[in-house]
Amino acid sequence: MPPRTFSLDLGRTSNYVCKSCLAYLRPVNSQPPQWLARQASTARSLRSRTRKPAAELKEKDPDPAEIQRMLAEDLFNGSEAKSALDIRYYSENIKTGERKTLQTNEEFGEESTGLDHEVLSSIEDLERRMLETLKMIKILEKEGKKKKATQLRKQFKMTIGTQYNRKIGPKHMTRAVLRIPGFPGPKFRPVEELNIFLARGDVLKGGVPTHTDLAECWKYYSSARKMLATDWEKVPGEVWDFLFRVLSFESRDNPNRMQHIYVLAKDMQTANVPLNDSQQLLAIEAMFIEGWEAEAIDAWKRAVVTIGSNRETFKPYYELGVRMCSLHGDTERAQQAVDTLLRSSHKPNPRIIIPVVRALAAKKSTLDEAWERYRDMRTLLGDSMNLQDYDEIIGSFLTVGAVEQALQVFVDMMFSEAIDIRGRTRLPMTVGNHFFTGKWLKRLIGAGDLDGAFKVVVFLQNKGITSSPIQLNGLIAAWMRSGVAENLEKADQLAWQMIQARLDFVQLRRRQSIMKDIVTRYVPQDGPSFKDKDKQEQESDDTEFKCLTRATDETFSLLAENYCSRRLHSRLEELFKVLDQAEIGPTAFLMNQLIRSYSQAGNAKMAVNLYNKMTQNLGVHPDGHTFLTMFNSLSVNRLIQRVPRLSELDAFAGRKFFKDMVEAKWEFDTPELFGHLPRTILFSMMKAKDWVGAIVACRAMRHIFGFHPTDALLVELISGIGSLQVKTKKNTLRLTQGSRIIERLKHDHRKLLIQQGHPGEEMTPEELAEENHVVFEQIIFMKAKVQRVAADELNQAIDEVSREMGAYDIVVKGDQEAISKYLKLDRQAIMDMQSM
Q: Where is the segment annotated Disordered (predicted)?
């Protein structure tokens, strides 16, 4: 290794001093660290040799320059004996576990940095030249020779860049001029990792860093900050510019952009590195976003002479001031900044008025000023004002409850001619109708402004316009989908107000029907009617909003589904009690929710009674979801431990449910139902040990559902339903064994087909489907055999069981007329469902 040159300027040399040298320089009274006592025997001669100079050092206090010279002569004189490491270091291969001893400084450098000796020497020489040149440039700048310093800086970049902007060392690594010198050794490993990142040539490729570049840049810089803080002057200005350019890149992949800019700007300020005008603007904005609002605004005010007067930064400077002052509540200064922009010759974007409108609308005293500012922006933008601009203004007014102004903005957006609705007690017909207001509510709900939509509902009702049930049901559903506790409470409250409005309407209708003649005889002609009286009572009660929109069956369905999913069984029962009072007939959806709720509450008997009552007495037509719910209510699907007595009852109930399902008129409406219902039926009957019922069900569903067992379903049937639910070693073994059994059954079936004359070539889709049906029945026979039930007994019982399940004409006779009558899905729909 070539000898290093030392001078009195310690800033030009490496900060790394080996442990033996530290022991040589340590005072006698200091306690030796633990690592010094655990070194190998080679360190003993070193300690015996260094104790005497340490005592002399205490007495004479020699000159530091002399110590530096002695170290240079002793450790770096190029001799092979003294280039050896005084402390043993080892390098271990992680893959092989081999460990070797590092003999020399060169080997230690290669292991710690990943670079060979030649590359390290080249880098050290570059660092030395960079430090010397940078120091000379700083001296020239201090002496006032800025022109000469600028010329020297350009020449320095050109020379070093030409020499070192090439690939050296490993093939995947490219060393460029960007490097932080003066931090060698393993102690400063984070700085070396940052240097490796800076040397990559693919960062900011095409001026756009990738997500990985942004993440790694902050990772390496944040790790090296603590070490760089010991000597900020060693960080070149080019490195600061590069880091700022990467970390300040605006992208979705850089979510913590402002926080990183804030930290980096603080470090640059500590290092006395001047920020250019654009960087100062970003630093002020980052300071504001990080919570230092007053300090950021003060910094913005002080920069009016410098950044504010610069032609290139004039526009972004005042736009930043408008946004910060508006958010801080200083509307007066924000308006001054806006006026300065609008009067300038820089062609400002009129949309900068939007933050001012939002800030002015937050106070009732300045609401009129906010409206005037909106009119100014609309005039300036003209036809270029888009829907997003209108939505921003509408949201600004709705947030603070200024619904009238928000409605006027929406009217401006929808109509080209001027229609002024502000201050009117009744809205004009072009605006005050369900079609127009419904479009606005739909837009607000779709944009997620649910609170704003509710404010519009209240405002419209006060103006005499009652929102339609479809609009309010959409708002209730959106509140429920959010899952927020506050929104769920709002949805529940609004829905029950609609139900109460429905109950009041029914009661009033009954009362009017009974007292029609009395009202005609005894109430004066000019007296108030029931409708007028009800309206007067509503107008007198302004303390709380009372919804006048009447609930529909969709409102009840929304509440029922919500209560069922949240397992609020008592609330669901209360809802069904009110359903009859509201004179709204029960639907299949409402019945399904109540049945599911009873099943979840463990009251399967009540679920069955409810099903029988609604289908037989109340005339509710069940659908596919009803039967899926009923099969799930069986004890074999609810209880972890099966009870033989209950399993027998489940077998009987399952056959009855299947008969009702076959005879009922319904169709598949979703692919999910098409996939879940047949699977649930087969598993329910197999778990109840109803082997004949499972065979009949599969044969019947083949004709009326177009159902064919899949290979995955066959494996799950032979392995057990729990084998796919929990991934354990035992279940994995069961699935493997089940797959082998299915393969063996298929092999036997194909062997039998070849004996019967099949060519043995590839099978058609119809033949594959038939094969899966045969394998399914073989699985049933195998499981029944374990229960000591012979296959002949099952075959003999098929006729009787198929009659019990309402599928005799379908399974035994194969009557095409009966199959067409009970078909639940047309052929094309079956093919579409199976392809999903």
A: 33-66
